[in-house]
């Protein structure tokens, strides 16, 4: 089954923590479970760690693509656009650990002196974790321990202890932030504005001019930003988002394919079916039938 990443209108992720009372998400995943071996591009206020167990993947943070290999991983700071993918459809077995930094802010001095300076550091959007660097290896070892302890009754306490250790290491090695706005942070906010506009208005007919205007940029810059951050054009992003919304309707309703096509913002059922097959390799009806069969396999009641 396709892994569930639920996104808000501004492309931020609604993180489904392991337990609702503690902002800790720890899961093991396979890249092949995502359509086209590509996770949705998203962001969240939490920080994220990817720990590659086997295989490899490429990782896009704010349009900068790096490669993650077995034994290593990546730290992604709060508020950064990111996603993992494989353009060669190579399998990758990985840990995904998402932690809200305010978990460490038990009293104001911790928040003011250690939490906020790191998450607001514009020079530190992400960090590659290499097994060949001692202090980075200490971080990956702490991530492994987080995963091993995830099902203990005292798992939230173990998570807090490991996270505090990781945060101290990151704080000691973070680059110095001069506090000045930079072009990358401005472009990131522009992208968030444009994708938020798309997701609020995807049911309507949208032009490139509409999307660019929502970010207060010209059409050419709009296209460059979408290519940089999403590796796709604004129109392709719009179509993929409409397809993703249609998947929810195919799974959870008995609406006809035509009704779903129009509800998701497509002008016709034929164009919807053509676009759906282009991205998922099957028709909407085939997808719906496969999903329902997976819920009720032959021979079960």
Would you mind describing this structure in some detail?
By secondary structure, the chain is of the alpha+beta class. It is 45% helix and 16% strand. It contains 10 helices and 7 strands. It has helices at residues 108-119, 134-148, 155-173, 183-201, 208-214, 219-230, 234-252, 257-263, 269-280, 284-295, and strands at residues 24-30, 47-61, 64-69, 73-76, 82-85, 92-99, 126-129. Strands 1, 2, 3, 4, 5, 6 and 7 form a 7-stranded antiparallel sheet that branches. Strand 2 (47-61) and strand 3 form a beta hairpin. Helix 4 packs across helix 5 (208-214) and helix 5 crosses helix 6 (219-230).
Q: Counting H and I runs of at least 4 residues, what is the number of helices?
A: 10
**Straight-line distance between termini:** 20 Å
Low-confidence stretches: none
Per DSSP E runs of 2 or more residues, the count of β-strands stands at: 7
Largest sheet report:
7 strands, antiparallel
Summary, kept brief:
The chain has 301 residues and is an alpha+beta fold. It is 45% helix and 16% strand.
Describe the secondary-structure layout.
Layout: E1 24-30, E2 47-61, E3 64-69, E4 73-76, E5 82-85, E6 92-99, H1 108-119, E7 126-129, H2 134-148, H3 155-173, H4 183-201, H5 208-214, H6 219-230, H7 234-252, H8 257-263, H9 269-280, H10 284-295
Antiparallel strand pairs: 1-6, 2-3, 2-4, 2-5, 2-6, 4-7
């Amino acid at each position: 089954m396709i892994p569930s990443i639920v996104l808000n209108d501004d492309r931020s992720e609604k993180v489904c923590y392991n337990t609702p009372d503690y902002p800790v998400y720890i899961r093991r995943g396979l890249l092949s479970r995502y359509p086209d071996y590509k996770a949705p591009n998203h962001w969240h206020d939490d920080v994220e760690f990817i720990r590659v167990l086997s295989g490899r993947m490429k990782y896009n943070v704010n349009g900068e693509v790096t490669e993650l290999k077995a034994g290593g991983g990546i730290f992604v700071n709060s508020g950064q656009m990111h996603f993992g993918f494989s353009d060669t459809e190579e399998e990758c077995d990985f840990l995904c650990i998402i932690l809200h930094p305010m978990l460490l802010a038990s009293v104001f001095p911790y928040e003011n002196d250690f939490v906020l300076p790191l998450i607001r550091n514009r020079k530190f959007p992400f960090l590659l974790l290499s097994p060949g660097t001692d202090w980075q290896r200490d971080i990956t070892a702490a991530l492994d321990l987080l995963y091993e302890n995830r099902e203990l009754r005292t798992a939230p306490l173990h998570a807090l202890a490991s996270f505090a250790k990781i945060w101290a290491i990151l704080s000691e090695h973070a680059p110095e932030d001069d506090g000045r706005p930079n072009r990358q942070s401005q472009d990131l906010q522009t992208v968030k504005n444009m994708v938020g506009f798309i997701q609020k208005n995807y049911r309507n007919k949208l032009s490139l001019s509409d999307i660019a205007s929502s970010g207060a940029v010209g059409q050419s810059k709009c296209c460059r930003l979408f290519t940089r951050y999403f590796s796709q054009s604004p129109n392709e992003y719009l179509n993929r988002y409409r397809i993703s919304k249609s998947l929810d309707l195919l799974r959870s309703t008995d609406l006809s394919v035509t009704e779903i096509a129009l509800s998701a913002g497509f002008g016709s059922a034929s164009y919807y079916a053509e676009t759906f097959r282009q991205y998922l390799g099957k028709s909407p009806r085939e997808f719906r039938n496969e999903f329902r069969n997976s819920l009720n396999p032959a021979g079960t009641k």
